[in-house]
Write a structure and sequence with these properties.
The chain has 313 residues and is α/β, with parallel strands linked by helices. The protein is built from eight helices and 14 strands. It catalyses: D-ribose 5-phosphate + ATP = 5-phospho-alpha-D-ribose 1-diphosphate + AMP + H(+).
Length: 313
């Protein structure tokens, strides 16, 4: 009797349900049913309400704070493993805890490596994610990692703006590689912001490396948290004679006073993906969906076809 490979099943963590619905629709499927039981002390238990035995399972969920989002992903992976799923792919548009990718001072954890270990122990046989904070995090896994780039989402929009005298900028030295990659595709100049911090999220000093006078500047980065660096860089560039300053940032964490800073800044526009749902709406923030990108890659993974065309950078 011939064995037929079951169709893949797609499930969503609760914080990423809206994006997961878009991905499932683009994939040509529907989200699987998951029920969450909650105890009075806050403990919760996910339960798949349909069989996943022998199936390829995609579990979609970004692991931005709070830590419940990570815990939810781990519990769902474990549930799929114990329900005898054939392949279990953790689809993480935003891979949280990635800023702790090394020991930058004594007696601190390497949280990104710990999270990688947790995901594999919980049952993930593959990871699909986008714009990791540091490329080397892929090496923390012993399982395949498909590291996608949001440039495939951003570049068509950026080209549609038809900006003259375009200059790509990085808000810090660490993002210079990303800025140079964008500049290569757009045939533009590059500007780097050099900054010194007193502590996390607090900038003491910032200077520009490169000229912005008479340029339409586009800042590129993987994430925006408090928006302190981003708005300071935009204001400094406008002071130095830039015609306009936009930003394309993959993951809109936007914590603390971020929304207020963006509204008061000289940023023309902040362009983000929907890897993390916005906490509030803003006329200055434009959201481009990454659903089609993830749906396409998931389809290729399921059918064992190449995804190299998705790597623009």
């Amino acid at each position: 009797m011939a064995y037929t490979v079951p169709e893949p099943k797609i499930f969503a963590c609760s914080a990423s349900t809206e994006l997961a619905e878009k991905i499932a629709k683009a994939f040509g499927s529907e989200l699987g049913k998951v029920h969450f039981s909650r105890f009075s002390d806050g403990e919760f238990q996910p339960s798949f309400e349909e069989s996943v035995r022998g199936a390829r399972v995609f579990i979609i969920g970004s692991t931005h704070p709070s830590s419940e989002n990570l815990m939810e992903m781990l519990l769902m992976l474990d549930a799929a493993k114990r329900a005898s799923a054939r392949h279990i792919t953790a689809v993480m548009p935003y891979f949280g805890w990635a800023r702790q990718d090394r020991k930058d001072k004594p007696r601190v954890p390497i949280a990104a490596k710990l999270v990688a270990n947790l995901l594999e122990t919980a049952g993930a046989t593959r990871i699909i994610t986008m714009d990791l904070h540091a490329d080397q995090i892929q090496g923390f896994f012993e399982r395949p990692v498909d590291h996608l780039f949001a440039s495939t989402v951003f570049l068509p929009y950026l080209r549609s703006l038809n900006l003259e005298n375009l200059s790509i900028a990085s808000p810090d030295m660490g993002g210079s590689k990303r800025a140079y990659a964008y500049s290569k595709f757009l045939s533009s100049d590059v500007v780097i912001c050099y900054k010194q911090r007193k502590k996390a999220n607090v900038i003491e000093y910032m200077e520009l490396i490169g000229e912005v006078e008479g340029k339409n500047v586009v800042l590129v980065d993987d994430m925006v948290d408090t928006a302190g660096t981003l708005t300071k860089a935009a204001d400094l560039m406008m002071e130095r004679g830039a015609l306009s300053v936009r930003a394309i940032i993959t993951h809109p964490i936007l914590s603390g006073d971020a929304y207020d800073r963006i509204e008061k800044s000289q940023l023309t526009e902040l362009i983000v993906t929907d890897s993390i749902p916005l906490k509030q709406q803003s006329d200055k923030i434009k959201v481009l969906s990454c659903a089609d990108l993830f749906a396409d890659v998931m389809h290729r993974v399921h059918h064992n076809t190449s995804i190299s065309s998705k790597f623009l950078m």
